[in-house]
């Protein structure tokens, strides 16, 4: 007897439906074909033990199981459940009349319980697109898949629930999620707030500009000056995720297996902070079976690289192309996958190995030339993609002990939102440009025109401070954002003046 069940394979952030054909004939043999990996091949042992422990069995017959399309590699243990249901239906131990109406996925434990799987959201999206009635998967993934409306999402705790469902003995309740209610429930909840930061008003201002224009920023200062504390509060002043952004972000984390059990929709912007020992593959994604890297996990959010010069040079250089294209393509001999990577890069570093170069109170202990050598660990092309360089100085005791309440994240976010609305209107006819940081040189010439006074100020600053040529466009982009925060149609000399301050590392005399 031949029975077909359906599973799903995830490539990149999209799913492909897999047809599992189970044919039973006289004999004693078990063939599993269709390019399965070792985890899929081992499913035979898990299925046999699980069925035995719930009172069913794999009879002594000849089984040929084909997983089509046969040219796509099938990976992981999530095919246990559709394979088991296919075997039971083909041997007439359960009714097979409606098994082909559902996408079935789940990893079996030896006692028959179901373990969570990766990629539940893209699998559910593809199931709805292809007209399946529903999807049966582990209960831990049900809320995540239920974000997709128009699909019966049934979360089972064990294989016995699924068997009884197809036999008509017991129903598996349909999991329903009010996506919009779930989305708005925790949209404006802030775990950390700029109210907690004492002093550092100039750094808060630079991060406000960063958030308003979508710029990348590097903070440079001695240990203990608050760089990490400030960086962690940046997501709280970014505009809230739109529903589309939340779904896209959730898809990436679902594929990577980063969703918590019974979690449905991500409503907070991601904040990723990998350690400096990270490999280039872990950062940008890849591996034998490609998975999203940190730059994709921080999509629509913030990637924070603390102690930037301590990262391996090769790791930092692989970010150059994703920072420009906002996507990363992982290519292999037989296929390639694309992962989105539209993130804001926030980097921090000490000014020198001892950490006290330019410190107002402590002396730098580094030998001559060491400071420049340390800064050279970060390449010019990477710095070229960072619009804002800001120096962070230590906070004085008087500011730390002050009872004066400082401005909170919510009021800063309101100003950021107003500036972003201006930019949305400005770039509404452009598909790939959403904020000032994404402007090309051509767009800079259109939207960053200067009057004679501003032009002269910029010329003087570049000559006196010996700013590099790459600083020119960056200053104009940042000045455009400052003008947007000011609700000013034109860029004035005051906006240029403030933007010039944010190019510390471009000054020829900075490191002596």
Walk me through this protein's architecture:
The chain has 512 residues and is α/β, with parallel strands linked by helices. The protein has a domain of 176 residues: Ribosomal Protein S5, domain 2 (2-Layer Sandwich). It contains 22 helices and 18 strands. The longest helix is centred in the C-terminal third of the chain and has 18 residues.
Summed up, what is this model?
The chain is α/β, with parallel strands linked by helices and 512 residues long. The protein contains 22 helices and 18 strands. Helices cover 36% and strands 17% of the residues.
Assembly classification: single chain
First-last Cα distance? 81 Å
**Tertiary shape:** elongated
What is the overall number of helices? 22
Give the % helix. Answer: 25-40%
Structural class comes to: alpha/beta
Counting DSSP E segments of at least 2 residues, the number of strands comes to 18
Q: In what order do the strands lie side by side in the largest sheet? A: 11-14-17-10-18
Uncertain segments are: none
CATH architecture of the domain at 2-177: 2-Layer Sandwich
CATH fold title of the domain at 2-177: Ribosomal Protein S5, domain 2
Q: How is the topology of this model organized?
A:
Layout: E1 2-11, E2 14-25, E3 29-33, H1 38-41, H2 43-53, E4 62-68, H3 80-90, E5 102-104, E6 107-108, E7 114-115, H4 120-129, E8 134-138, H5 142-145, E9 152-156, H6 159-167, H7 179-185, H8 201-213, E10 217-220, H9 227-232, H10 243-255, E11 271-272, H11 280-284, E12 285-286, E13 291-292, H12 294-297, E14 302-305, H13 313-317, H14 320-325, E15 327-331, E16 336-340, E17 344-349, H15 370-375, H16 380-383, E18 388-391, H17 397-400, H18 409-426, H19 441-447, H20 452-464, H21 470-485, H22 493-500
Parallel strand pairs: 3-4, 5-8, 8-9, 10-17, 10-18, 11-14, 14-17
Antiparallel strand pairs: 1-2, 2-4, 6-7, 12-13, 15-16
């Amino acid at each position: 007897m031949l029975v077909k069940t359906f599973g799903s394979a995830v490539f990149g952030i999209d799913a492909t439906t897999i047809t599992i054909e189970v044919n039973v004939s006289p004999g004693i043999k078990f063939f599993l074909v269709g390019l399965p990996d070792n985890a899929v091949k081992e499913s035979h042992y898990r299925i046999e033990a699980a069925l035995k422990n719930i009172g069913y069995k794999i009879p002594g017959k000849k089984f040929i199981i084909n997983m089509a399309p046969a040219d796509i590699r099938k990976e992981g243990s999530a095919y246990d459940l559709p394979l088991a249901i296919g075997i039971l239906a083909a041997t007439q131990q359960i009714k097979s009349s409606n098994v082909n109406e559902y996408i079935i996925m789940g990893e079996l434990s030896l006692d028959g319980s179901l373990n969570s799987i990766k990629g539940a959201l893209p699998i559910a999206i593809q199931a709805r697109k292809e007209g399946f009635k529903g999807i049966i998967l582990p209960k831990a993934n049900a809320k995540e898949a239920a974000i997709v409306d128009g699909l019966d999402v049934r979360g089972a705790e064990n294989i016995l629930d699924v068997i009884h469902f197809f036999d008509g003995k017991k129903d598996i309740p349909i999991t329903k999620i009010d996506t919009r209610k779930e989305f708005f429930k925790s949209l404006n909840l802030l775990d950390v707030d700029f109210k907690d930061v004492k002093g550092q008003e100039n750094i808060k201002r630079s991060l406000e500009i960063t958030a308003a224009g979508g710029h990348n920023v590097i903070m440079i200062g001695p240990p203990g000056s608050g760089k990490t504390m400030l960086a962690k509060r940046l997501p709280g002043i970014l505009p809230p995720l739109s529903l589309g952004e939340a779904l896209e972000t959730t898809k990436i984390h679902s594929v990577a297996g980063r969703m918590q059990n019974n979690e449905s929709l991500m409503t907070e912007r991601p904040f990723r902070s990998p350690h400096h020992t990270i490999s280039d593959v872990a950062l940008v994604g890849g591996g034998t079976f490609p998975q999203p890297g940190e730059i994709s996990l921080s999509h629509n959010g913030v990637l924070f690289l603390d102690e930037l010069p301590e990262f391996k040079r090769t790791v930092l250089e692989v970010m150059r192309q994703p920072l420009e294209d906002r996507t990363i393509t992982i290519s292999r001999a037989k296929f390639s996958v694309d992962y989105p990577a539209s993130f804001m890069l926030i980097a921090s570093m000490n000014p020198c190995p001892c950490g006290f170069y330019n410190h107002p109170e402590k002396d730098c202990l580094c030998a001559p030339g060491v400071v420049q050598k340390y800064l050279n660990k970060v390449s010019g092309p990477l710095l070229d993609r960072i619009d804002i360089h800001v120096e962070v100085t230590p906070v004085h005791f008087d500011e730390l002990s002050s009872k004066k309440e400082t401005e909170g994240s919510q009021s800063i976010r309101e100003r950021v939102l107003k500036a972003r609305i201006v930019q949305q209107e400005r770039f509404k006819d452009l598909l790939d440009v959403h904020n000032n940081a994404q402007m090309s040189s051509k767009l800079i010439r259109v939207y960053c025109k200067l009057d004679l006074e501003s032009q002269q100020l910029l010329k003087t600053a570049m000559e006196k401070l010996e700013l590099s040529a790459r600083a020119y466009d960056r200053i104009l982009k940042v000045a455009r954002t400052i003008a947007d925060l000011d609700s000013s149609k034109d860029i004035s000399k005051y906006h240029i003046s403030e933007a010039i301050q944010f190019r510390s590392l471009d000054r020829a005399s900075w490191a002596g």
